[in-house]
Amino acid sequence: MTETAPAPANDTGHKMSAKNVNVFYGSTQAIRDVSIDIDMDHVTAFIGPSGCGKSTFLRTLNRMNDTVASARVEGDIRLDGEDIYSPSMDVVQLRARVGMVFQKPNPFPKSIYENVAYGPRIHGLAASKADMDGIVERSLKRAGLWEEVKDRLSDSGTALSGGQQQRLCIARAIAVDPEVILMDEPCSALDPIATAKIEELIHELRGRYAIVIVTHNMQQAARVSQRTAFFHLGTLVEYGVTDDIFTNPRQERTKDYITGRYG
Amino acid sequence: MNKRLASSDRAPTDWKAEAMQKRIRRRYAAERRFKLMGLAAVVLSAAFLAFLLATMAANGARGFMRTEVALEFDFPALALPVDRAQLSTPGADLALAGAELENVVKGAASAAYPGPVPLISDNGWLTVRDAIKADPGILGRKERIWIPASPEIQLALRGEGDPAVVTGASKLEGLGAIRTGFNRDFLTASNSTDPMVAGIWGALKGSLLTMAITFLIAFPVGVLSAIYLEEYATRNRWTDLIEVSINNLAAVPSIIFGLLGLAVFLGTWEMFGHQFGPLLPRSAAVVGGLTLALMIMPVIVIASRNAIKAVPPSIRDAALGIGASRVQVVFHHVLPLAMPGILTGTIIGMARALGETAPLLLIGMRAFVVQPPQGFTDPATVLPVQIFLWSDEVSRVFVEKTSAAIIVLLVFLLAMNGLAIYLRNRFETRW
């Protein structure tokens, strides 16, 4: 099932590695025995038809599934070799190190500045007001939003357009200096121009963070990612270099999906 | 396949046919009927409200007015046996007691108006006493003092009651010795057996003290319970049971809460609790406030839970996603967004508590209280109970005061509802 993983799963060398992960919602199994490695400097795309478990799996990587009472995760997921489900792992710190961008832009109904400053503030990352200003500016610049909002940082974040809101959410995620950024269909609520901007941004961010992006848009996966994982019915069907997956899939199911036979 | 054939066999729908037209007419008629019914309902309730307000205003306006008569006192000639040096000390009342001031004043009143009814009210002589206390200098000169008239005189001025009294009263009016004006005592005095000097300040203060206790207990406990139930508790049989219990408590008649308050705060506490703390007094604002807090807590919990539930989950995800803890999510994001709803529910609950009578009767807040309460443990009564007590009185003047007190209560209720609307708009976040 995981024979296509690009490298043997040992803990050293990979930013994150998941081994034999099963996720249950109550008695239904949403993820079956998934093993995958995620590396720095790469964008990893999860593709697959709706309900195949790609978002569920993404949410296990920063333990957002903890908020679902019926969810149960089995298996071994490591960040820099450290088991993220071990009792010694602080979930609050984990989520700062593994940031997340959601499907629907969800800025806080506060000012643009506050949106970005909130994370650094609760983690105590800024020593002074000037320090915080610097973090906010740097984050907004990296998210490609600074030029558009620098004169109205006190405006409400919810007054921005959809694409700007999503970039604000990305700025908010990178403000706490994460190592991995998880993006759950970040462009599905955006128009093509805003989507193009986000994709451009993902390219620019690639060098600093390990990025995992869930998408139902195969062209997008082909455009932005270096590695692609194809999920189907809760299993990882194929995982490999994006070009190989799209031009020369080894599995019949992958081929059927990317040629539009189902999905 | 067969089905399809069958449907294509049917004749095309004739939208102009008589039956179709009739159906359309019937539909429009139903629409008009429904609109009329709605309009009638609104008009009916508006009429009832207007009737209530008009009656209250008509009766209550008189409750705010009082008739006073002027009496001339030649203090040097009366030569009251009063030690003037004591008048500026706390012993003033005692010093004046020896002067038999009540008889002096009443004698002067019956000299001015030797009619079949008293001229001044039973407690009218207290006005003279207070005047002397305020300015002992008047004992050395002639002084004209305005004293509350008796209820009979007040009514006679409006042409009600014994015709002989009516003519007597209008004669006095002609002399300029009688006047009717705004009764400031009504807002500053407390209850009294004499309707001419009775006021609502004591009851109002009792209400404010009771509300303060109610708010201080019910708001934090209610909101924290709601937060726990919505954000922390896992759904299981126990939380379901708690939810059903809270919903049922919100529907329990208020008098039952009065019995509960009586049994717990007074009965049980007296038997077992007082070894751990001070004994809770009867008829006091603290016990009334605790009882009403029990009563409105379910309302606050339900309103707060709904407000918290209405906060979009995406905001929680956003905060959790950058590493906020559960408490930070609640206090930084969920609670501020839910605040307008929580405050609205709380103020509506407080308004309900402010208008509540039955539970307070049971814990003894129907006592006759002449002194305004000085603290939470002093005997007190509250506005609705005061209204209830006055409505039992025979005197016409008390009947008018009842309406006036109702107006004061309604003004407070309207102010609270207005505050609820203001706070909701003020804190509402627009997306």
TrEMBL record, chain A:
Record-annotated ABC transporter domain positions: 16-258
SUPFAM superfamilies named among the record's database cross-references: P-loop containing nucleoside triphosphate hydrolases (SSF52540)
Keyword Calcium attached: no
Keywords: ATP-binding, Nucleotide-binding, Phosphate transport, Transport
GO molecular function: ATP binding
UniProt superkingdom: Bacteria
PANTHER family registered for this protein in UniProt: ABC TRANSPORTER I FAMILY MEMBER 17 (PTHR43423)
Protein name stated in the entry: Phosphate ABC transporter ATP-binding protein PstB
Organism expressing this protein natively: Sphingomonas canadensis
The gene coding this protein: pstB
UniProtKB/TrEMBL annotation, chain B:
Transmembrane segments: 208-229, 249-272, 284-308, 329-351, 404-423
Localization annotation: Cell inner membrane; Cell membrane
NCBIfam families: 3a0107s02c
Chief location category: membrane
Keywords: Cell membrane, Membrane, Transmembrane, Transmembrane helix, Transport
ABC transmembrane type-1 domain sequence ranges: 204-420
Lineage: Bacteria, Pseudomonadati, Pseudomonadota, Alphaproteobacteria, Sphingomonadales
Claim: Transport is one of the keywords in the record: yes
CDD domains in the cross-refs: TM_PBP2
Membrane topology listed for this record: Multi-pass membrane protein
Similarity section: Belongs to the binding-protein-dependent transport system permease family. CysTW subfamily.
Designated name of the protein: Phosphate transport system permease protein PstA
Biological source species: Sphingomonas canadensis
SUPFAM superfamilies tied to this protein: MetI-like
A Pfam match: BPD_transp_1
